C-alpha cells in the first residue's frame, strides 16, 4: 500500500464551496490538494445557476418583446433555441470542460487530483491508490445530486435531470416536469416561452411551497399565463416510456404524457460514498451536520450544499470564507506550537527558490473584529427564484415566524399599486410582504416579488441582517419611482 503523503489540507469536491476554500488556502501558502471527480466548479457553472440564468435571460427577452404590443407598437417574435444552446456551450461551460478552472487552482499553487476522494481514517483521504495525510484539516465540499423519487418504473426510463435540461440542443415539443420548486418553475417558464408545451406536476398543494403562499399564487398565475399547465396535489405513482414519449400516472387515475420528462424533485447529499465511518461519523444522515464554524468533527470541515444549510451558491461562498479563516487560524496555532518545539512547517509549501512562503499577510483580513473567526449566521438567508417576476425572499416566512412563537406583524402591498408598478404595466405582477417581530420592532423576514424582485430584496436583507429598527426603516428616504419604494407602503401597512 502507498505511503500517505503529508500535506496541509485536502479538499474533497471542488464545487463552488470547495474550489473557493482550496484556492484561497493555496494562495495563503498552505500545501493544498484539491480532489474533484467531475468538473472543477461543480454544479453552478456547468449545470446550475449560470447556464440556467442564461436561459432565463433569453426567455425574458422573448417575454419583453411580446410586451411591446400595447406599450410601444408591435413586435414579431420568432424564438430560436440555437443561440441559447451555443451561448451555454461556448460562453458558460466551455463545452463542459474545466481546464480553465483547473489552471486557475494550480495557478494559485494548489495541487489538483482528478478522482473520487473518501476518508480513510483520521486525517487521511484516499483517491484510488493515492493516500494523503492532512496535517491541518480535511474539507468536504461534495455537494448534492438530484434526488430521484422511488416512483414505479421511473428508473428504467430515459428521464432528464437538470443536466440534460441544461445541455439540450434541440427542444422537445412537450415536457413534463416533476417538481414545482424553484428549479422546476424556472425551467418550466423558459421552455414554455420557447414554445414547448410544459406541464408541471407538484405533489404538494401549491408550487414554490417553501415560500409565502402569496408568492406561490403569483408564480402559479404567471406560469399559466405563459401557457404552462400546472397540476398541484398530484402524486406521480408510475412512469412509463414507450420509446417515443413518457406517461406519468398520478393518483386518482390522472395521466400526463409528453415527449420528455424532467425530474427536479430535490437534491440529496451522498454521504455513503465518503468513508465517514472510518472517522466514526454516521453516513446515514441526510446532510453533514456542522457547527457555526463549519466543523464536522476534529480536523474535518464541510462547506456548501452538503451541510444542508440552504442549497445556494451564495451560502457555499459565505461558508467558504469562514472555513478559510478558521483553517488558517488553526494552522497558525499548530505552526506556532510546532515552531516552539523546533519542528515547524516541515510541509509548508516552498516556492521555486526553496523559500518558505509566508502566509501571515494572506491571513490578515480573513478574521473578524479583534481577530475573531466569523461564525455562520443564517437568520438573513436570501433566496431568489428567477422566474419572471422574480421571487426574492429573506429570513422567515409568516408561518415560520408564527411557529417560532414570534409576535408577528405582517405588512403587504401589491406592486401594481406603487407608482413604478403602475407605470411598468405589462409584467408588473408582484408584491412586498414584510414579517415583523412586533416585540423587538424589527423585520424577521420579507418577500419581494416583481420585475426586479431579487434586486429589491437586497434592502430587505440588510434590514433583517442588521436588525434595523422598524422606526428607522419608516423614516428613511426611498427613491421615486423605484420598485423598492413599495417597501415603504408595506411598512405603512404593518399591523
Ligand atoms: C438548475 C440549478 C439552478 C441553480 N441556480 C442557482 C442560483 O440561481 N443561485 C444559487 O445561489 N444557487 C443555484 N443553484 C444551486 C447551486 O448550484 C449550488 O448551491 C452550488 O453548486 C453548491 O455548491 P457546492 O460546492 O456545495 O456543491 P456542488 O456544486 O454540487 O459541487 C460539489 C462537487 O463535488 C464533487 N464531488 C462529490 N463527491 C466527490 C468525491 N467523493 N470526490 C471528489 N469529488 C466529489 C462533485 O463532482 C461536484 O463537482 C442551482 C442549482 C441547480 C441544479
Topology:
Blueprint lengths: L4 E8 L3 H12 L4 E5 L6 H5 L1 H18 L15 H11 L6 H9 L3 E4 L2 E3 L4 E4 L2 E11 L4 E2 L15 H6 L6 E5 L3 H12 L3 E6 L10 H13 L3 E4 L3 E6 L4 E5 L4 E4 L1 E4 L3 E2 L26 E3 L2 E3 L10 H28 L19 H4 L18 E4 L4 E6 L2 H6 L4 E7 L4 H6 L6 E7 L4 E9 L2 H13 L4 H5 L11 H7 L3
Parallel strand pairs: 1-2, 1-6, 2-3, 6-17, 8-9, 8-14, 9-10
Antiparallel strand pairs: 4-5, 5-6, 7-15, 11-12, 12-13, 16-17, 18-19, 19-22, 20-21, 21-22
Helix pairs in contact: 1-9, 3-4, 3-7
The site of flavin-adenine dinucleotide has 39 residues, from α1, β2, α2, α3 and β4.
Instruction: Please report the distance between the alpha carbons of the first and last residues.
Output: 69 Å
CATH superfamily of the largest domain: FAD/NAD(P)-binding domain
**What would CATH call the architecture of the largest domain?**
3-Layer(bba) Sandwich
Bound small-molecule species: flavin-adenine dinucleotide
- CATH topology title of the largest domain: FAD/NAD(P)-binding domain
Strand-pairing-aware structural class: alpha/beta
Strand segment count: 22
Specify the overall morphology.
globular
Number of helices: 15
Low-confidence stretches: 339-370
Mean pLDDT: 93
The major beta sheet can be summarized as:
8 strands, mixed
Oligomeric organization of the protein chains: single chain
Strand portion: 15-25%
CATH class value of the largest domain:
Alpha Beta
Number of domains: 3
Q: How much helicity do the residues have?
A: 25-40%
Q: What would you report as the Rg, rounded to the nearest angstrom? A: 25 Å
